[in-house]
Each structure stands twice: as C-alpha cells, then as structure tokens.
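Morning. Coffee machine broken again, so started the prediction first thing and wrote up yesterday's gels while waiting. Chain of 146 residues, entered below exactly as on the submission form.
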Amino acid sequence: MQRWDDLTPEEQQRYLTAEELRAQLAAATARAEAAESALRLATGSKGSTQVIMSLEVYEKMLDDHAQLTAATARAETAERERDGFQAWANTLESCAWQDAGFCPHCGADDVRKSVDVLEPDVAKEIRYCYSCDTAWAVKDASQARA
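Came back before lunch.
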C-alpha cells in the first residue's frame, strides 16, 4: 500500500493537475463570460441577433469553449481518480495484516498479507512486500501460500 507521501513526484503530478485544470477552467470561463457580455451589448435592446465580429474572434471563442469543456472533463476525471485512490488507501490501512513469507518479486522475507476479506469476488487476500514496495492480489486460494 502506498500513501500519498510515498508516491513519486511523477505519480503525484497526475493528481495535482486538478488545481491547474481549475485555473484553466477559470480563465476559459472568464473569456466565455466576456464573449456573452459582448453578445448582449451587440444585440442591443431590440433583440436583434446580428452580431458583427471578426472570424478570428469567433474562432477564438469556439476554441475557448472547446478548451473549457475539455478542461472540465479532465478536472472531473482527476478528482475521481484521486478520490478512488484515497478510498482504496483508507481500505487497505484499515485491514489487519499478518506475516506471509517470501516476496516473489525480490525474494525478501518481508511480506505481509491482509487478514480481512476486502472484496471476495475480486481477491482472497492482498499481499504487500515492505522491501520492494510491491502489492499484489491473491485471487485463488491455491495461490495463498504463506
């Protein structure tokens, strides 16, 4: 199990992008609101829908809208990933652990296994090696050798 502080900066960067995406979202929202204000001024009180604007400004407005939509989707995805990671980390921290023998990855005698059944249909137990920082799920009872 890895805690937030144990993640590498590259792994943390995946989750820190939500703040950057919020900043992009705020900038795109401000530009969209400015475009809406300009549209209201251009239409006037008569309700005319004719707007005089250069093609470049219109294309920029469309591009800003596309960026706003994409930034919103990326921010929501990043938040869901971070929430899922945190929920899984909390679940693993609440488990009881026992010694489980040797690590198949590094060979160290530093493996612990979960005693609690987390999700029986997914895995029988979770094992974690403190030496090589590797976690894996044991799905079949025949694999569960201590």
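Residues 97-143 form one domain. Going to sketch it on the whiteboard this afternoon.
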